[in-house]
Amino acid sequence: MQPAGPSGLQYQVTHGMINDAALPPPVLRETYEFVRLVREYNNGELYGRLIQIFDQDYVEQSADMDGTVSRLEQLVENHSELREALKRLQVQVKVDNYILRIKDRLAMDGLIRYNEILEGFTSGQKSTTKMVEEIALLFANHMDLFAEFCELFPGGSNFIR
Fold first, then answer.
1. pLDDT tens, 62-85?
2. In which compartments does the protein localize (predicted)?
């Protein structure tokens, strides 16, 4: 059982803490990185267009996410490094939305268990098979979450039979 204080996993998850250092949520880090890359791309027009997209879509809160993504994809279509940064941002947004669905459906305890399972896998303490078995058990009553996990995890389409 994880301690409840600042070193505990639940505290770290709810307070955005890792190793006692506050970190921005991953989607914000990817957004900052994307904006930084566009700004440093030595193309003032590109950066100006990015700011216009953000002004129109977020400051005015008038656009749908699909429209924003489409405009961003058009903005970077001829710049491979920026396309890759945008793809990373899109993946992180999907992952963050997935994590929120886990938290909503399974509450904080389920999210903590999910993170513990993944930590065991990434640290080498669990095999891929063991991790998938534990995730499947955790999501036994939420097959849509398990199916989405399989979509997000590299090679995960092999997990569903």
1. 556 778 888 899 999 999 999 999
2. Nucleus
Long-range contacts of 62-65 (CB under 8 A, 24+ apart): none
- DSSP string covering 47-106: HHHHHHHHIIIIIS----HHHHHHHHHHHHTT-HHHHHHHHHHHHHHHHHHHHHHHHHHH
Asked if the model's pLDDT at residue 156 lies above 80, the reply is no
Amino acid letter for position 53:
I
Contact 35, 42 (CB under 8 A): no
User: Residue 60: its pLDDT value, please?
Assistant: 63
Please give the torsion angle defined by the CA atoms of residues 9, 94, 88 and 22, in that order, rounded to the nearest 10 degrees: -30
